[in-house]
Amino acid sequence: MMGETITLGKALNHGLRRALENDPKVVIMGEDVGKLGGVFRITDGLQKDFGEDRVIDTPLAEAGIVGTAVGLAIRGYRPVCEIQFDGFVFPAYNQIVAQVAKMYYRSLGKVRVPIVIRIPYGGGIGAVEHHSESPEAYFAHTPGLKVVTCSNPADAYAMIQQSIISDDPIVFFEPKRRYWEKGVVDLDAPSDFPLHASRIVRDGSDATVIAYGPMVRTALDAAQAAAEDGRNLEVVDLRTLSPLDLGPVFESVRRTGRAVVVHEAPGNLGLGAEIAARITEECFYSLEAPVLRVTGFDVPYPAARVEEEYLPDLDRVLDAVDRSFGW
Hints:
35% helix; globular
């Protein structure tokens, strides 16, 4: 593939720029997204090139940002809201689950709200309280919302554009610890890979490791380490959290007979539980061991100096694989 080697954050910037160029109804709004270019510089340079009417610095009021976006969407715009940090989304939670998610159904399908809500999420950057959260299950649990998350620059570039042109409201989770990781992105080729589709990112035959967002890199690192011990792990990047696309997962598990689900959010009622249940329903007679989960612990994200004790890592994934082979 021809393309540029850029960071995930820069890929998002390019994707947002392309969306602004392609549709004059696309507007970006959020705290410090304009002059500063966003706290992670994802919107860097966009206000300068597209003006203050298209890239809007808002007050520090998440409920106001999303509430305003609902009105804009009803009137034909395609607002892209940035929530500066994951823990800041909760003041807007009522707007998202009571308005954004329900408008299409409430209007019997007559009113579309094509809103994208961008949320940097997860730990790993040594941030303070309210700046490292994994709230994806709240939104994936909410009917009327679609939820996606990228794990690499090429997906980031394509998925943000696909989300913006979608007529459905989409919560777009960005793995902040991966913003600076690089990959090859073809900035000229349109994406022909569906937005709401999972993907096998490493072929294997011995066990299936299912991950998304920031944990895909961890799963790939674990698979590389396992290969040195003679185990061949297949890794699936979910990409879409609602709706879940588990067809490739089921196909993989039927071949390998073992499944380990990895996510950074706490385990209790997390996405891993839903995925494990569905794998058990669909692949029961193919399983050689129970579906295992590797997750964050059921405590709030800890202080920065000990967050590495909380975050699932390569060793915890490999330990779960070992336990799976112990059955």
